[in-house]
Amino acid sequence: MVAELILIAAIGGIFIIIVRRLPDALREAKSAPPRPRSNGPSLLARLQGIWKSSAPARPVRAPAPAPAELPEPRVSGPTADDLLAEGDGYLQAGKFREAERAFLRAASKQPKNPKLYNRLGAIYLKQQNYTDALSAFEAARDLDASRASRHYNVALAAWYAGKRPAAKQAIARALELDQSSPKYTELRRQIDEG
Question: pLDDT digits over 154-174, tens only?
């Protein structure tokens, strides 16, 4: 009962404060100089294009332009290929966190692209995060099992993660697809020697 009375008194106090301040706030709003409006998208709209997630974006409505000055249609953010190129640049510069972020954004746009998972696996391998590297390389291999390099990457990550049977199986498959690669043969030798 006491708590309810305190809650009612608090709500009443807030209401009185709002009623007292409302005329001042309205007066200030009327006397403030009007802000200039731009014809382009707002800063918020541009930032949403940069930071948008994989969820479909809600359209931002800008003021309708005059018929004589219709803008060109806007693409909703960078494409998966743009993000792949951006991630490759970060990867070559050694900026693994930025590269990972770019590749993950690209994967949200193109989830069936094995290159993206392969690049993510390379990042995790360089960071000695062998479990995540193995998961990423397995995803790339599952999307494109016809390339020997996909199996080699799985074998390498599995070997570093301490999963010798999985490494042995993957390197055997890589050698079935490409017997001439010396690095595949060398990894097989290392796995066999254990």
Answer: 999 999 999 999 999 999 999
Q: What is the pLDDT of residue 79?
A: 92
108 within a domain of the structure (yes/no): yes
**Quick one: CA dihedral 164, 174, 129, 125, positive or negative?**
positive
State how many domains the chain has.
1
Q: Which of 128, 180, 183 is nearest to 157 (CA)?
A: 128
- pLDDT tens-digit series, residues 43-92: 444 444 544 544 455 555 655 555 555 455 555 689 999 999 999 999 99
In one letter, which amino acid is 77? Answer: G
Task: Give the whole-angstrom CA distance, residue 89 versus residue 98.
Answer: 10
The CATH number of the domain holding residue 111 is 1.25.40.10
Residue 49 placed within a domain: no
Instruction: Tell how far CA 176 is from the center of its chain.
Output: 35
Question: What pTM value is reported for the model?
Answer: 0.61
Instruction: Examine residue 102 and state whether it is found in any structural domain, yes or no.
Output: yes
For residue 89, give its domain range: 80-193
Contact by Cβ (8 Å): 136, 120: yes
- Comparing C-alpha atoms, which of 182, 127, 121 is closest to residue 154? 121
Q: Is residue 83 a contact partner of residue 109, using CB atoms and an 8 Å limit? A: yes
